[in-house]
Amino acid sequence: MKSAVAATHGREVVGGVGGFAGLFDVSELKAYARPLLASSTDGVGTKVAIAQALDIHDTIGFDLVGMVVDDIVVSGAKPLVMTDYIACGHVVPERIAAIVRGIAEACSAANVALVGGETAEHPGLLGPDDYDVAGAATGVVEADGLLGPERVRAGDVVIGIESSGMHSNGYSLARRIVADAGWALDRHVDEFGRTLGEELLEPTRVYSADLLSVVGDAGDAVRAISHVTGGGLSANVARILPTGTLALMRRASWRVPPVFTVLGDLGSVPVADRERTWNLGVGMVLIVDAARADATIAALADRSLAAWTLGEVIADDGGHSGAPGYVHGAKGVDGGAALLY
């Protein structure tokens, strides 16, 4: 575990791990004209129940890091440091080491330093084999490089980036479907080409380092980024659009991965509920200047990120507001609107 954590440390980390607080040298921020700090915190949710049932704990860290740092990159910020928190009923050293090793490996992939963490034992509150994980990260972005709704305009192109599966959202629904159907995690599912458990535990793709590279090369062409998490595709795209605009996104522009169709059909989940709960194969969304859309898709492909034209941004005249699936604003943001059609 220690070697995996140490591998995330560059010269900026002061004192290593073990103190009451992690220390990170931010001298490089002196080069910023107006540095803005971006922070995010999240957990893995009930996906940890799958890891516990399978007794596989070294992949859940990618889910944690992905949920946190990919929220930070949405603003165009570079993640700098991350900390983690593990609560468990009983400390099993090998299990904790596996969890932290996975977190550290994901941090290395994201080029972020894991500067500290905490493991808390809660007997009587959690069962001996139960645990939960959470994390927080801080990044930085130059003020004039901040991405967001203010940059988006009608005529921009909406680009979808492929997810690596369910990521870390909608597992309460998935677990209920599986339990009601009586499916065991070791059940082989032909559509997946592997067991149900292997499919459900597929780690979250950590996008931040690749997206920062693409955004850096694209200049002002990338207007905004959305991380498709809880609430589904439309809700998370709507919150990065300015009032008066609408993202029209075509369902036929991509193939929904089998995990979503198999579970949805098994549980007789209406399409609208699937779209409000799961990412359906779209992990991140970019809003891009139309003139640079093809070049951006090619740049993403160069970094092994499958991407495609998902739709476009138009002026919202209210004509689509009654359509099924129309979402206006989301998660407290009075922004634009989104519609899958």
TrEMBL record:
UniProt keyword terms in alphabetical order: ATP-binding, Cytoplasm, Ligase, Nucleotide-binding, Purine biosynthesis
CC annotations in GO: cytosol
GO terms under biological process: 'de novo' IMP biosynthetic process; adenine biosynthetic process
Record-linked Pfam families: AIRS, AIRS_C
Domain PurM-like C-terminal: 153-318
Catalyzed reactions: 2-formamido-N(1)-(5-O-phospho-beta-D-ribosyl)acetamidine + ATP = 5-amino-1-(5-phospho-beta-D-ribosyl)imidazole + ADP + phosphate + H(+)
First-listed, main subcellular location of the protein, grouped into a coarse class: cytoplasm
HAMAP family (alphabetical): AIRS
Family affiliation: Belongs to the AIR synthase family.
Protein name (Swiss-Prot/TrEMBL): Phosphoribosylformylglycinamidine cyclo-ligase
This protein's encoding gene: purM
